[in-house]
Amino acid sequence: MLQEHQLCTYYQLTEKPGKRPEAPDRQYRELDLPAIAGRYISYRSDRQAIASFFLPQAHCASCIWLLERLHQLMPGIYSSRLSLLERRLSITYNPKQVALSGIASLLARLGYPPDLPHDDNELQGQRRQNRRLITQIGVAGFCFGNIMMLSFPDYLVGSDPVEPSLQQFFGWLSLALALPVFFYSAVNYFKNTWQAAQARYFSIDMPIALGLTAMMLRSGYEIVTATGTGYLDSLAGLVFFLLIGRYAQARTYQALTFDRKYTSFLPLAVLRIKEEGEVITPIADLRPGDVLWLRNGELIVAEAELLSSVAQVDYSFITGEELPVVARKGDLLHAGGRIVGDAVRIRLRQSVQPGHLADLWNHRRGRDQAVSLSRLADRLAKYFTVVVLAIALLTFLYWMLAGNTGKAVLSMTSVLIIACPCALAITVPFTLGNMMRRAARQQIYLRQSLVLEDVAAADTLVFDKTGTLTQAMAARVSWQGRQLTAQQWQAVRSVALQSLHPLSRAVVAALPPQPLLPVSAFSEQAGLGLTAEAGGYRVQLGSAAFTGAVAEGLQVPEAEGSQVYVRIDDELMGFFLIRKNVREGVEAVIRSLSRRLRLYLLSGDAPQDRSWLQSWFRQDDSMHFHMLPEQKAAFIREQQRQGHDVIMVGDGLNDAAALQASRVGIAVADNLHQFTPGCDVLVHASALKHLPAFIELSHAARRIILYTFLFSLVYNVAGMLLAVQGALSPLAAAVLMPISSLSVMSLSAVACWMVSRRKGW
After folding, report:
1. What are phi and psi of 299, to 5 degrees?
2. Between 5 and 141, residue with greater pLDDT
3. Which part of the chain has CATH 3.30.70.100?
């Protein structure tokens, strides 16, 4: 299939591809039933649908490469994206061209059968795997204990020999106990090795499978020919301790996934309409039936019914289509859409699913940055396996030529077992995942753990001003201009409430609460202003240039603040003077970051704040004002063309293009927790003071990974030296191998804890 569609690059990547299908003929016809298909479909229209499957077989970069090219294998599939940490594949397809059952059958033929059903619980597949692994450990442990008991006389030096008939009986009984260990408990090692051989690559399970096979054949030969008792105690002990190590590693990964998915999800709140007025409500407190007020640019957090007469919804975060969809009263609105234009009222039909919102965030880019440390781990793991096989073969030949067949088998087996690149493979995800969890406790949320490597590689940091360095919601707002009527004030507040811009929110907070007027013909130009009709008035709010204040010769005050001009029915009425408060700790943050990074300020405001900013941004040409959103993005792209890696810190609204253009986009969320899929990192405003510590911890994470790499290499080299000399039994190697992985995880965890503790985390 891959040859026919020119996808054989799958076999040339550095990972271990080639999972074979267990039931390739299954048709998955149950997915043609709407009730069952609805469990896996998160969005559906006439031309487009989005479904997600849990794929327990996905495990490496080759899987990502292949599964994200399904559109080349089946017409009707637009795109697919795999979250490897969660092993969940999201597929966008045309429901008129291809059925969901057909997609599931294709995945099964590729060797990635979807786990169905999982009752909307993505961890159920992992639980089944855990139960099977625990059973395999139990079988291996039971057989290991009994074989050790039967082999006990062999360990008693100087004791009277056991009668030959009894010794032969013990040997055959041990062989019978070893069979379930070999064919059941250790079956995954042989499956992976066979799949690797079919795909012509070296699997990290191959040395273990070869060692087990050598021990089983040698032991079986000695017992059948009555020439010895074999090494079945070592074989059973090897499998037992290896499986314990694998279980500990799997539980660690699942703990990282669980914490990422359900306790450190994005901080998001919305405006809920109650009898006493509008209340900012966290999504965790929302229930079906709640009525929400969504403004221009806000996200639909769950499937809902439209209560307003008409709405325009942008589903580009889900479907990639840029044109908004027009919805009418009573229509179903899908989670993940954004409201465009007039604010609307919706009623939730279901509770919020944080996992779905996390998926939107994980789709922030169509690619993931290639990261050096991850590639280094992959290369080391691949070549390490080849080197281990070569050393094991040379060791076997050496002792065979020396006339010691028993030592040849034991030494070769010990080499194959003790030297495993597992510790190398787990270093990167475990260390970065640990740091990711610690950052989440400080209200710094990462899209994925590999973002830390991008943060550590950056040499330039760009700040937005309004809503980032300054706190618009705590601003001091004063009105300068004509006296407005009560209905005009009501119209101004109703229009300002439609926007999420920090200055609009400051205006709303400054005006007294009053009933909202119906708003129509709403439009907003990012970074400039907004226009709408309310209460029979045509209202414009925005900059001097946008409202025509400059053309009319209105004097712009030289004050430390921003102006929001108001034009009603083509008549300039005045402006709000907004003296913004600087966020707590911003000065210390900038001074600390300036010692490590090149700093720039890009602001859409006038340069009236240059005087007090000058003491922070001292570099020539480091401050730029009157910057439109596209100009900010162009500035960042120019910096990257010059060879600089840029971090952009903005409010996530007008700065969306700049966040997308940067290597790392950091969005600052104020007390209205605005969800921003366009960023890599979401920082609560109160946690902005932790930004220098976060960047320092990203550098510390790289150092920890390098140190654990070195420790793992030294550990493996020392173990192989002992194994080559025959000074290490296979049983001892079986104990030491999982200890190497556990020691790497322990070192990483302790190092992360110590570094975080020094930073007060």
Report:
1. -95, 140
2. 141
3. 8-122
